[in-house]
Write a structure and sequence with these properties.
Layout (H helix, E strand, L loop, with lengths): L2 E3 L6 E3 H19 L9 E5 L6 E4 L15 E4 L14 H13 L5 E5 L2 H7 L11 H4 L6 E3 L9 H11 L4 E4 L3 E6 L2 H24 L8 H12 L2 H18 L6
Parallel strand pairs: 7-8
Antiparallel strand pairs: 1-2, 3-4, 3-6, 4-5, 6-9, 8-9
Amino acid sequence: MSKITSRITGNEYDAAEWSLRVDMAAVFRLTVEFGWHESVANHFSATLSEDGKLFLLNPKWQHFSTIRASDLLTLNAEDSGVMERDNPPDPSAWCIHGAVHAAVPDAKVILHCHPTYATALCGLEDPRILPIDQNTARFFNRHVVDTEFGGLATEDEEGERIASRIAGQEVLIMSNHGITVVGQTVAQAFENLYYLERAAQTMLIAYQSGQPLKVMSDEIAEKTAQGWESFSGAGDAHFAHWKGILDQREPDYAS
């Protein structure tokens, strides 16, 4: 198997892992591009093993705009002593991602952040995404709301509860907190995040109008949601487009 050597750290990586690291670094940079980041908080991860327990995670409190492929931590969800070792991850990142990767092997890529519109939606009594246009209908019967906010996610019980809620889902709306999206690939997770924030923006603007919402029937909403599945390749093209822009403007992301 071919190896790639990081010119930053000198470490060697399998080609598949390096490709995943580059894609993950791109998502961190694009999160800044779209204004979805928040200070040096929030965290993204991706699995390296079939069981999901070995995974990549961003370093503690490193701003998304500076993250490179070689910066990502390699962690094991079963490592109970990780927080006592040198260079530990952010406590809330370990709480959420460690718990999810330990319990939900199908969650290959996990993006947790607090983008403006989606987080504002999380502060409503009813934070559901209602099918009022094509983008919102994308999430019809395809998102779950967690109403049991338990404070900053630093306790094992909070991480385990979040893991139980996100199992089998791609979108988790976390009341009073933020959002978590899952994808089988980095591009898929990025596209889920992109359209979730767009859908939340549409919902809030519609609510702001004060007019009654024109909600689709369940039949049409489900038909529309299924229709999105035939456009799954668009997410790969969208992600590739933005990686191309990063290659020109911020090529260090892939180092």
